[in-house]
Amino acid sequence: MLDYNVFASNIKQWGIELGFQQVGISDIDLTTAEQTLIQWLNDGYHGDMAFMAKHGTKRSRPAELVPDTLRVISVRMDYLPESQMQMLAVLNQSGSAYISRYALGRDYHKVLRQRLKQLAIRITKEIDGQIYRVFVDSAPVLEKPLAEKAGLGWIGKHTNLINRQVGSYFFLGEIYVDLPLPVDVPVNAHCGRCQACLTICPTQAIIAPYQLDARRCIAYLTIEFKGSIPIELRPLIGNRIYGCDDCQLVCPWNRFAQLTTESDFLPRQALINPPLITLFNWTEAEFLQQTEGSAIRRIGYESWLRNIAVALGNATPTTDIIACLQQRLSVPSTIVREHVEWALQRLQR
User: What UniProt keywords are attached to this protein's entry (predicted)?
Assistant: First the structure.
């Protein structure tokens, strides 16, 4: 008879050998998280992310998504490619583009999914007929509540998962299994009275501790949202053209963050402190070439130009920037043209 305690220990060891920094196991009771999700959706804080409500309770009830699921194996993989001092330096250069640090290297979906599949195969070699599904931010899965239950960290006031030893610069992935594995114990939360993430958020998207209005979040506006960015929020975006790391930059627990040793997450040369003008001048073919295998490609060329136009409108005015924007006034996209016109009006007033 299989000793599930020993088997769970083996799974965790195999995960570490595959490059994950932590592996935990949880049950599938997400009752509290489901109530939080329903309220968040009812408040409309998900904005245009209709997929958050599309699948009903499958997101919060793993056995509805994958029948017979009993446990979820959650993994953590650290991605921080540079020091926080270097990140802040880029944020403070208005003519440079700031890209959320998780997206500077290879698409994390591909990296984690490949490793998770290897882990799942290793598990199935030990038990014939075992049911499993691998997920990396690719299906209706409440990954942060599951990781919290698995002891990988706690959900902070900015709604990201925090680990006391390494901070929050990490990816999560899951394997749904039908094995009655022993579960791990959740850790205590350690945000205390800290309000740093609420205070620093450029657009005040963290409307209260543990409550995020995605409609104001720069990550949502520059990645998920495809429409016209609200005019009142554009100046607050600064030079952030893809995502935002501010709430993580000020989190005290990230003083313990370690630089990644994963070569796939190291920055691509074209994305290391790039001038906004350089990126704005990319043709669509160049955009596709430079972002091949990157998470950035998912937003598409139109959103790419829209985001950079906003950042250029927030930059220190120069003749080169104004000339660069003027060259885009004739682009076919009405969305891009609108943001270019806004940027020019802002710089030339």
Answer: 4Fe-4S, Cobalamin, Cobalt, Cytoplasm, Iron, Iron-sulfur, Metal-binding, Oxidoreductase, Queuosine biosynthesis, tRNA processing
Q: Would the pTM count as exceeding 0.85? A: yes
Residues 310-343 pLDDT 10s: 999 999 999 999 999 999 999 999 999 999 999 9
**Catalytic one among 137, 178, 184, 213?**
137
E strands in the chain: 22-26, 71-78, 98-99, 132-135, 154-155, 161-162, 170-177, 206-208, 211-212, 240-242
pLDDT number for residue 129: 63
What pLDDT is attached to residue 132?
A: 85
| Spatial distance between the Cα atoms of 67 and 250, rounded to a whole number of angstroms | 41
Residue 166: phi, psi to the nearest 5? -130, 0
| pLDDT tens digits along 230-254 | 999 999 999 999 999 999 999 999 9
Cα distance between residue 101 and residue 89, in whole Å: 13
C-alpha span between 174 and 245 (Å, rounded): 24
137 in active site: yes
Q: DSSP 3-state assignment of 35?
A: helix
Contact 66, 131 (CB under 8 A): yes
Residue type, 177: V
